C-alpha cells in the first residue's frame, strides 16, 4: 500500500485534535490518576514510586490514550476531507455517524446486557460524543485541508464523487 492513498490532513489539525481528544480521555481516566497520585504521596522515594504497579499502569494508559487520540484525530480529519464536509451541520452529522458506528453498540450492551447504571453509561456516552461529534466540529472549525482552495468549486462535486478512473 502506498501512502498517497491516505488523505492529507493539516498537521496542526492533528495536533490540536489530539490535545482536544486526549483531554476528554483524561477526564474519564481521572480516577486512575487519582489513585496513582495517592500512591505517589505514600511512597518513601521517587524510585519506589516509579517501580510501582500504579505508576507503570498510569504511564501505559496515558501513552496509549495519546497515540489513540492522534490516530482518531487523523481519521476524523481524513473523513472530513474525503467527504468534502465544510459546514458545522455536516461535521455534526459525520461525528454522529462515527459515534453510532463505533460506540453505540457498546453502550447498548452495557445498558441491556451488563445492566450498568444509567448514570455511568450516560457519562461515558457524553464523553464519547465529545470525542466524535465535538472533535469533528472542532476540526471543521480549525480546518483540516492542506490546500483549502482544493474543493472550493461547486461544479466539481465532492471528493468521493470524483473517480480518477472515470472519463469525463
Automatic annotation (TrEMBL):
<protein>
    <recommendedName>
        <fullName>DUF1761-domain-containing protein</fullName>
    </recommendedName>
</protein>
<dbReference type="InterPro" id="IPR013879">
    <property type="entry name" value="DUF1761"/>
</dbReference>
<dbReference type="Pfam" id="PF08570">
    <property type="entry name" value="DUF1761"/>
</dbReference>
Amino acid at each position: 500500500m502506498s501512502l498517497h492513498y491516505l488523505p492529507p490532513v493539516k498537521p496542526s489539525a492533528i495536533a490540536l485534535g489530539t490535545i482536544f481528544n486526549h483531554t476528554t480521555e483524561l477526564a474519564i481516566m481521572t480516577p486512575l490518576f487519582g489513585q496513582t497520585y495517592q500512591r505517589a504521596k505514600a511512597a518513601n522515594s521517587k524510585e519506589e514510586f516509579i517501580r510501582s504497579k500504579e505508576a507503570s499502569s498510569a504511564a501505559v494508559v496515558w501513552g496509549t490514550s495519546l497515540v489513540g487520540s492522534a490516530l482518531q484525530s487523523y481519521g476524523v480529519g481524513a473523513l472530513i476531507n474525503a467527504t468534502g464536509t465544510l459546514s458545522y451541520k455536516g461535521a455534526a452529522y459525520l461525528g454522529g455517524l462515527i459515534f453510532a458506528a463505533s460506540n453505540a453498540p457498546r453502550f447498548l450492551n452495557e445498558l441491556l446486557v451488563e445492566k450498568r447504571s444509567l448514570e455511568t453509561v450516560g457519562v461515558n456516552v457524553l464523553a464519547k460524543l465529545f470525542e466524535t461529534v465535538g472533535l469533528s466540529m472542532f476540526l471543521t472549525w480549525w480546518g483540516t485541508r492542506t490546500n483549502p482552495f482544493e474543493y472550493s468549486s461547486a461544479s466539481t462535486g465532492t471528493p468521493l464523487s470524483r473517480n480518477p478512473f472515470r472519463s469525463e
